């Protein structure tokens, strides 16, 4: 491997990993652009266009956590093979390539760079919205691609749809008679923007009320400990539910993990000693390991001195919408030491009063849910399911069993005027 080529591969790896840690292109556009330039340079070295099918070979460099020369060599050999196939492939005209793309529904990020056209919002509109569905002929699309090939013109088209009234701009007046597909492009982009704004409004409503903590009552059985990048700890625990045991992965910080296990002798202390030993023996920042307690210590850890208050974070579905986390993952909110209730009469009375108060709060929470649901009803941009989700968040009734119990308590009041007041008490 040539030293200069290996130097570029290492730089590409370092910058890609840095961008990954920072959260992706949205978090550092300058770094992302640097990586794209490096990709172009590396592919140009082999005489290959900046197409996705070639870029994906470069992405293999980033699969290991550290740069590995043997992976770099594999990437180079793969690109050399692809370059040979590319150079020996039959020569097709641009029109033939677009005809084939339309017939085989090929990826624009492979085809456009192959033809020397940039992947821009306008060229992608021509390709994805007109060529692939057959709304325009390959010949017409090729002519339009040639017309807008100049980077300065594409920049103007990109800025055009960001204006509040694009058809009132000087750019539009200058281009409307020269670009036959401009009208459809503007309509398409405005429709996309309107849909995005509506989605943003919906997501703002869903995210307005943070998830309500849920209490996991003891005992909890800890089966496995998982460490990711040294500081992020997860415990795979079994929770006792009315319908039977349920497995949950609980995420917590290293300090919380150590504070919790320090209260459990001797097994908790043994686990801490073992995990510290693993950590000290592996000084790498990206240290990751997993401990099966049954296998390592012969038994699981029982958490019975604490109740754990957890939050089920919302996740985004394939379309980017927030939805309830159904993957069995929660984050620790706080640890609550379990206090035994006194068995004397005064203790029993206090305990009964506490339970009664909690039930009355649940009864009231369902009323809050109904009020919020009624307030959301006129919001036509929210589906019924989304309105339900927002209302349940607002009332703190995300948990299904808690919601069912609150509903039953509300029905008791609504049908029989039972408001859970103890005799002789208000």
**Structure summary, number of beta strands:** 10
Low-pLDDT stretches: 422-426
Question: Structural class of the secondary elements?
Answer: alpha+beta
Radius of gyration (CA) equals 30 Å
Q: What count of structural domains? A: 4
Taken from the alpha-carbon principal axes, the silhouette is flat
The largest sheet is: 8 strands, mixed
Describe the structure.
This protein has 17 helices and 10 strands. It is an alpha+beta fold. It folds into 4 domains: 3-88, no CATH class; 94-205, no CATH class; 214-337, no CATH class; 345-416, no CATH class. A hairpin with a 2-residue loop joins strand 3 (232-241) and strand 4. The longest helix has 32 residues, at 345-376. Mean pLDDT is 82; it is low at 422-426.
Brief summary:
The protein has 426 residues and is α+β, with helices and mostly antiparallel strands. It is built from 17 helices and ten strands.
């Amino acid at each position: 491997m040539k030293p200069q080529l290996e130097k570029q591969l290492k730089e590409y790896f370092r910058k890609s990993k840095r961008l990954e840690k920072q959260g992706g292109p949205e978090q550092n556009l300058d770094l992302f652009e640097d990586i794209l330039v490096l990709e172009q340079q590396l592919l140009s070295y082999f005489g290959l266009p900046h197409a996705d099918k070639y870029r994906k070979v470069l992405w293999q460099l980033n699969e290991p956590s550290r740069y590995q020369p043997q992976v770099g060599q594999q990437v180079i050999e793969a690109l050399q093979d692809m370059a040979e196939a590319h150079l020996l492939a039959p020569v097709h005209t641009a029109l033939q390539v677009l005809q084939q793309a339309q017939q085989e529904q090929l990826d624009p990020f492979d085809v456009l760079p192959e033809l020397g056209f940039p992947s821009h919002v306008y060229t992608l509109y021509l390709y994805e919205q007109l060529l692939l569905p057959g709304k325009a002929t390959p010949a017409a699309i090729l002519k339009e691609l040639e017309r807008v090939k100049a980077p300065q013109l594409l920049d103007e088209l990109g800025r055009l749809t960001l204006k509040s009234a694009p058809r009132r701009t000087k750019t539009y007046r200058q281009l409307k008679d020269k670009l036959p597909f401009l009208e459809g492009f503007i309509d398409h982009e405005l429709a996309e923007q309107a849909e995005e704004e509506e989605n943003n409004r919906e997501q703002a409503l869903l995210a307005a009320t943070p998830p309500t903590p849920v209490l996991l009552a003891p005992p909890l059985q800890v089966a496995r400990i998982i460490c990711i990048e040294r500081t992020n700890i997860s415990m795979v625990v079994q929770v006792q539910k009315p319908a039977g045991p349920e497995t949950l992965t609980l995420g917590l910080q290293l300090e919380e993990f150590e504070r919790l296990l320090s209260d459990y002798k001797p097994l908790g202390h043994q686990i801490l000693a073992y995990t510290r030993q693993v950590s000290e023996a592996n000084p790498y920042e990206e240290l990751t390991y997993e401990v099966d307690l049954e296998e390592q210590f012969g038994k699981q850890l029982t958490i019975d001195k604490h109740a754990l208050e957890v939050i089920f974070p919302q996740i985004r579905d394939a379309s980017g919408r927030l939805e309830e986390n159904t993957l069995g993952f929660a984050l620790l909110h706080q640890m609550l030491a379990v206090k035994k209730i006194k068995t004397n009469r005064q203790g029993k009375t206090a305990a009964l009063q506490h339970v009664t108060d909690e039930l009355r709060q649940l009864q009231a929470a369902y009323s809050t849910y109904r009020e919020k649901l009624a307030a959301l009803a006129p919001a036509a941009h929210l589906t019924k399911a989304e309105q339900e989700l927002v209302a349940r968040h607002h009332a703190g009734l995300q948990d299904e069993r808690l919601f069912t119990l609150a509903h039953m308590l509300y029905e008791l009041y609504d049908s029989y005027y039972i408001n859970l007041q103890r005799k002789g008490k208000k």
